[in-house]
């Protein structure tokens, strides 16, 4: 893992959104990361925690017997 890269090495994707369960990025965003401008990286980095929370909430709601 690099200091400026949000990857945590999980690399599993949510089938509904296409977001990585570890870092929250899509495959195209992961591929483009190294070529993104610092501004675009910062904007995407601010969005990632929200994406991860949304996927985690959706998975929790989808589990049978959990409330």
Shape, principal axes of CA atoms:
elongated
Residue fraction in strands = under 5%
In terms of per-residue confidence, which ranges show pLDDT below 50 for 5 or more consecutive residues?
none
Q: Using only CA atoms, what is the Rg?
A: 13 Å
The strand count comes to 0
Helix count equals: 2
- From N to C, what is the helix and strand string? HH
**What structural class results from the helix and strand content?**
mainly alpha
The portion of residues assigned to helices is 40-55%
Describe the sheet with the most strands. none
Quick gist of this model?
With 67 residues, the chain is an all-alpha fold.
Task: Tell me what you see in this structure.
The mean pLDDT is 91. The termini are far apart. Helix content is 46%, strand content 0%. With 67 residues, it is an all-alpha fold.
């Amino acid at each position: 893992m690099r200091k400026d890269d949000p990857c945590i090495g999980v690399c599993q994707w949510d089938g509904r959104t296409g977001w990585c369960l570890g870092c929250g990025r899509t495959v195209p965003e992961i591929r483009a990361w190294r070529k993104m401008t610092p501004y675009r990286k910062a904007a995407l980095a601010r969005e990632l925690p929200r994406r991860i929370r949304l996927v985690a909430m959706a998975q929790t709601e989808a589990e049978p017997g959990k409330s």
